[in-house]
Amino acid sequence: MKPNVALRGMGPRAASFVVLLGAMTAPALAGDRALIGFIGYSPDGRYFAFEEYGVQDGSGFPYATVYVIDLAADKWVPGSPYRTALGSDDATVAAARKAAQELAAAKLTALDVSTPAHLVALNGDGETGGDGHRLDFGKPGYGLEEPPDVQSLSIETFPADSSTPCESYIGEKGLGYALFLDGEELHRDGRLPQSRGCPLDYGIYGVVMPADWSGAEAAVAIIATYPFGFEGPDRRFLAVPLDK
Fold first, then answer.
1. pLDDT tens-digit profile of 172-194?
2. Measured between alpha carbons, how far is 102 from 10 in angstroms, rounded to an integer?
3. Which residue(s) pair with 227 in the sheet?
4. 227: how many CB neighbours lie within 10 A of its CB?
5. What angle do CA 227, 5, 48 make, to 5 degrees?
6. C-alpha 243, offset from chain centre
7. Domain range annotation of the chain
8. pTM for the complete prediction?
């Protein structure tokens, strides 16, 4: 999903501001587009960890964050997320990722997050013809056979109250989201946490499962969220367990 689709969820003042930024310099509209890496699961499928990383808009400094999630409780484990940002001109994204992984290492070891994650479905950044609000997936197939037990994820957005003064920043409320699996609601935002900022849109990025386990009970939807940023919509990620 292209970041500038978020303009349809923005108020007139915010939209005008981003259009002005785009007129000044074309790359500005892209904002800070975080990438994602899947660290893995605990052997019992209870804990899941991933990282997001990139270069901050505005400062140009590299950053990385490791999230460790208790899927049964649907919340971060104590101590998570593990964040780092390197504020020097010669710092690299690789160094930021290494620093964040070192911060998280003790927790990952304690929870035995050692089972690789299998990305079974993806709305990739180069995909065309969709808005990222739907993704069909099944259990991993083998050889040339079709994936069995196909299910469908869909996402809806709506204005939501927030811990961040979004109406002052973007001229209206930020967006919350509701996630559905085969039409059954799995998640619906209430008041947005401050960590979410002022989201302008969301997309279903992918679905992951444990690579060496049956895994359906530990499937996780990866949701891309696009908060308003200094140089246009940024991108961050959320993980939502699909076993409710």
1. 999 999 999 999 999 999 999 99
2. 38
3. 199
4. 25
5. 50
6. 18
7. 3-241
8. 0.85
